[in-house]
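Two entries, shown back to back:
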Amino acid sequence: MNIRGVILEGYSNAGKTSLLKAIKQTQALDESAELSAVILGEHYSQILNNVQGEFVRLSRAQHLELLRNRVGMLKNLNDWAAYLGPGKRKSRGLFFILERFHLNHRVAFSDSDDAEITSIEHDLIKLGAKCLLLTISDDIVEERIKSRNPEVWINKSRDEIDLACKELIDTQNSLRIQASKSMVPTIEINTDNKEWDKYAGLIIEDNDFA
């Protein structure tokens, strides 16, 4: 297979953006890694988007179509590599990173029939996809959410802070539940220590991301 990739899932503040940056840097420095890479941040696959200054939420059908479109693009690239014939991973291989993809959909539409998202997951498996669910421990949730924009939280009430912490913890638990239902192999990584380079090295060096 000429293609492999990783899907980064997790709630805001779990470290998806930091890990994505680390993977890009590690992959670029690895002499044996694929020269070709497709890296799509969450703005290319998430449900809630800032469109011309207004927040727009995609419907279930719209989001499924969006995910199919992104997977179709990867399938077309892989088909081209297969058409060219056998070659070394470095020259012929393709590495991809997706962010907020199938698990994000499953959590948002957890009460809906999952047959269509399961079909997309089967296509992802054929493309060599693995999923990394990034999480943080409950006892450092408040510290982590305040670390991104400290000034935003200065005048927040205790109730507002507690509500934000509860939302993060509840969403993490929902992501875990949906990961157990997903067809895509998933590894949960606790990012309390923020060892981005270590996590990235494991991903680039090992096809199993183990």
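entry 2 starts here
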Amino acid sequence: MRHREVRREAYVRFLDQLLDAHRYMDQLWTEPLPSPAQPALRQLTEHVDRLWKATTIIDLEGPPDVSDAARAVAGLAAEEWDALKEYLEGSHGGEELHLSASGDWVQFGRRRAEVGDRLVARARNAVGGHLVAPE
């Protein structure tokens, strides 16, 4: 029972990190890009780094299918970091990526939902959240 609680806490911390990263990425996609871009790029990097660090706790707590799903989520965040980094470095400030790069924005949104749903389903199963409560 205690191990299930520890797992759940680890999963919740990871999902909190993920939501923070996604909020910041969404801000970069939907608001005019800043100039200079370096502070935004540093903050973006910090979000993705924190997410990767949180995967080590998921690796420790397991099970492997949840760990794999968390790594897929972090890997996608790293891919999105690459795309946003390229846009930020090529920006003069003021560009709105949801307009100029809408295809990438939509694609990342779709992929985020897919890998996120997979992670939540596996995590829920690992902590018994898929079970019906006794009456």
